[in-house]
Amino acid sequence: MVFPPTMWPTCPGCLRTKDPPMNKLSPAIDLAFTNARTFNKFDGRAISETLLQQVYDTMKWAPTSMNCQPARLVFLRSAEAKARLKPALSPGNLDKTMAAPVVVIVAMDTRFYEHLPTQFAAYDARPMFEANAALAEATAFRNSSLQGAYFMIAARLHGLDCGAMSGFDAAKVNAEFFADGRCKANFLINLGHGDAAGNHPRGPRLPFADVTQVL
Questions:
Q1: Averaged pLDDT of the chain
Q2: CATH number of the domain enclosing 185
């Protein structure tokens, strides 16, 4: 199910100036969050490159620190491409990943700051990262994680289902796909049209009172 434009709020500005109309936002919230699941099985339908680009073109507008955009995405669609990933997967993730229509390697560009002169025009931020490798690494990891989550939300809004994974050997993935060392793997996402037959029972979520403070 794709969230249709006819169900979007009629005035984008209303989202920033007053409470949004919940009757119009509820379908999107359901699709992206409350009714969404982590899928272990997919129905086998192929995902086109056009659709992958549409998901990216939605996700790219979400915010990152200084508009740094460090995420780099590698889409594995062919059996040959997924076979290159196979030695790095944990046993529990092996079969479902090989069967997924697309596997996304969410990686981070450790030299993301080279793009800042064109992507962040407020001031020259490149030198602060060039001179501080630890800051660059932390910024790349934090913001590529954000972008990976944004990608999952965008994929759901475009009618796809996701299964995110961290059960893999990052060093093996980096050696196979990022041999020059510039990019580093963050996490993986299996992507497709989900088959609920492979879902585990849905777990609860911690309540507001247990995880928040309002000061």
A1: 92
A2: 3.40.109.10
